[in-house]
Write a structure and sequence with these properties.
- By secondary structure, this protein is of the alpha+beta class.
- The protein has a single domain, classed as Roll (Nuclear Transport Factor 2, Chain: A).
- It contains four helices and six strands.
- The chain has helices at residues 2-17, 20-38, 42-47, 66-80, and strands at residues 49-56, 62-64, 81-95, 98-110, 116-127, 130-139.
- It has a six-stranded mixed β-sheet with strand order 2-1-6-5-4-3.
- Strand 4 and strand 5 (116-127) form a beta hairpin.
- The longest helix is centred in the N-terminal third of the chain and has 19 residues, at 20-38.
- The radius of gyration is 17 Å and the shape is globular.
- Residues 5-16 have low confidence and may be disordered.
């Protein structure tokens, strides 16, 4: 009986930890990522990712490890220019301490004059001092 009670309390704690405050914290991490990209802040970007993070971008480049993610992000921002936005449309908790944030990802005013409308899916993990990005998948809808 004690074991059952402890399991229920643990489950309730996990569910409470995945409420509106945690969703807001995840949305804030995504916004910090966008802000760091816009200001071309490599240290700010680095601080938002786990050490083993990876990113698969719409060109097919797969950046593996935090250093590669930061390097590729900085190069991409420099080369394409433009203003980036990610509008988070949903946050889903898939396990305690693991969430997926999906959103519309847009780059407007690129150096070639074009704009790109894509989707981004960010997987985040909860660490001792907050949420960190573990993976990003950028997708360009077919026909664009």
């Amino acid at each position: 009986m004690l074991w059952k009670t402890l399991r229920c309390l643990a489950l309730a704690g996990c569910l409470l930890a995945q409420g509106p405050a945690e969703e807001a914290a995840i949305r804030q991490v995504v916004q910090k990522y966008v802000d760091a990209r816009e200001s071309k802040d490599a240290q700010g970007i680095e601080a938002l990712f786990t050490s083993d993070a990876d990113q698969l971008v719409s060109t097919g480049e797969w950046r593996k490890g935090r250093a590669a993610v930061v390097k590729g992000t900085m190069a991409s921002s420099q080369n394409s220019g433009g203003t980036r936005t990610i509008t988070v449309t949903s946050v889903r908790f898939v396990a305690p301490g693991v969430a997926i944030a999906d959103g519309r990802y847009e780059i407007s005013g690129m150096t070639n004059g074009a704009s790109r409308k894509m989707w981004a899916s960010l997987t985040l993990t909860r660490v001792a001092d907050g949420w960190r990005i573990a993976a990003i998948r950028n997708m360009l809808p077919a026909g664009q």
